[in-house]
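--- STAGE predict ---
source: upstream dedup step, 1 unique chain passed
mode: sequence only
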Amino acid sequence: MILAAGRGERMRPLTDHTPKPLLAVGGRPLIVWHVERLVAAGLRDIVVNHAHLGAQIVAALGDGAQWGASIRYSAEPPGAWETAGGIRSALGDGRVDGAGVARPNLLSPDGAPFLVVNGDIWCDIDFATLGLAREDDLAQLVMVPNPPQHAAGDFRLVDGRLLPPDADPLAGQNLTFAGVGVYRPALFAATAACQPSRLAPLLLAAMREDRVGGTPHTGRWYDIGTPQRLAALDRQLGG
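--- STAGE serialize ---
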């Protein structure tokens, strides 16, 4: 799943008329970089959620055939449903709309783990290498060194396990969540579909049960949070 429903407030005015994942670096939109890397990793069944100017995303990607992918969409209303709410809704809610159609489970109809990547990052993470570390884990998150704009980090990585940031300060170090993770559907079981819901509380609860692993990534990773960072990455990629 590629998360593409955010408004991109910090990227305005660029995002007033273009959804953030369609902003280009190195000659192509951010989201296209993800599609290409997912396909290269053998992950061809892709779900994209969208809200703000979502029709542009659908028009740009279509069914994904030009990249050898099969892309389906999970539409959200203006304002979107935040990260956990968007993922939970793409897992299906069983409710039937006015036309008698239930929202389908696009992500994991067989209950298998699935990968999620934020649409507003650029990275060289090899998606093919990612998976859950333990049979009973609910998530495996990719962690990166803290960038200047997020110096405090998010979670503490200790021997391949993730802990809340206020865990024993003598154990491991706080790193930044890269916005790339593998999840079991069970992580979202108690989350209401089609409602706003944040991901961090679910992850912290699972960490306290020792059910979240962490994968460090020291390669290239950029959080495209401002027009200045977008322009800097574009220059690096020769755009």
